[in-house]
Design a protein that fits this description.
alpha+beta, 7-stranded mixed β-barrel, 1 helix, 59% strand, elongated
Length: 143
């Protein structure tokens, strides 16, 4: 019985070391493209970001927030996507950001991007997580 416990503890320690090594070797990065595209008369803005994340990953998603102001009106919006794969290469990922209230417009805006990557799970919960963020002033224009 005692030797079974020692084997279990030793196995858990080895797994934890492997997990720490994997997490330390993994890397994530995100960079927002300064050009953005106004869609459907301001119903959305398509922003693009360069993302890179190393394999293996269990789950990954990119979130982008956009804020614009005109006079006394501030418009904020949010969009996200999971439509990319973590494979260690740099990828261009498009995200459509929809406003919470008034429509977006042509002109400058402030964008914030968050790349979230889960490398390992245990019992349905992420136990090895990385996050990268970036912000930029973007220029929203028509196509």
């Amino acid at each position: 019985m005692r030797s079974s416990r020692y084997l279990l503890v030793a196995g858990a320690a080895v797994a934890a070391c492997l997990l720490i090594t994997t997490a330390a070797e993994a890397s994530v990065a995100v960079q927002i493209d300064p050009s953005a595209l106004l869609l459907a008369r301001g119903a959305a803005v398509r922003l693009t970001a360069e993302v890179s994340c190393s394999a293996p990953s269990v789950d990954q998603y990119l979130e982008i927030d956009l804020t614009q102001s005109r006079g006394n009106t501030v418009t904020q919006g949010y969009g996200d996507t999971e439509s990319f794969t973590c494979d260690g290469t740099s990828q261009s990922v498009a995200v459509d950001v929809t406003p919470y209230g008034s429509p977006f417009h042509i002109g400058p805006g402030y964008a914030q991007a968050y790349l979230n990557v889960c490398h390992a799970t245990y019992k349905g919960r992420c136990i090895s997580f990385e996050r990268a963020q970036s912000s930029a002033v973007v220029q929203v224009s028509r196509s």
